[in-house]
């Protein structure tokens, strides 16, 4: 659960079924991170990203967003902000 305490943030979610199209890093420390700039993708370098379905949202102060287990997520502050994440199981 991602909760916005102050300010607002842009959140982009991507289904884990898209894993093969995300150009994940090979090394152990970043194996769940994409090499693609998901807000401004280089589709020449990462052509398969063009078929990835992204789910975008803006989380405002006082709102929470459930991020399903295993889903890839990208978060960007739209203004000075504070948020908290609660992890389940």
Automatic annotation (TrEMBL):
Keywords: Iron, Metal-binding, Nucleus, Oxidoreductase
Cofactor annotation: Fe(2+)
Coiled-coil positions: none
Protein name according to UniProt: JmjC domain-containing protein
Main location: nucleus
Residues in JmjC domain copies: 1-89
Keyword Transcription belongs to the record: no
Domain of life of the source: Eukaryota
Pfam families: Cupin_8
Subcellular location: Nucleus
Molecular functions (GO terms): metal ion binding; oxidoreductase activity
Annotated GO CC locations: nucleus
């Amino acid at each position: 659960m991602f909760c916005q305490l102050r300010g607002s943030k842009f959140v982009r979610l991507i289904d884990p079924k898209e894993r093969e199209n995300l150009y994940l890093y090979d090394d152990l420390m970043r194996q769940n991170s994409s090499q693609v700039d998901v807000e401004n993708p280089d589709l020449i370098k990462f052509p398969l990203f063009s078929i990835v379905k992204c789910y975008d949202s803006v989380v405002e102060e006082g709102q929470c967003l459930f991020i399903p287990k295993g889903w890839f997520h990208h978060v960007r502050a739209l203004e000075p902000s504070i948020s908290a994440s609660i992890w389940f199981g």
